[in-house]
Predict the structure.
Amino acid sequence: MPQPLPAGPAATRLALFSLDEAHDLLRLLRLIAAEDDELAAEAGWFATLLTDRVPPEN
């Protein structure tokens, strides 16, 4: 699995997605993670990474 990049003082975080777009992306990643193929593990890793950063849907 890829390792998260360190968020040191030189790291810049950009707001690239709206909250709705982030939830759409999470749903897509979770669908891919549920499949039995070579992308499932990486999609699951990214979904976990985003879940830790995106507030839950109401």
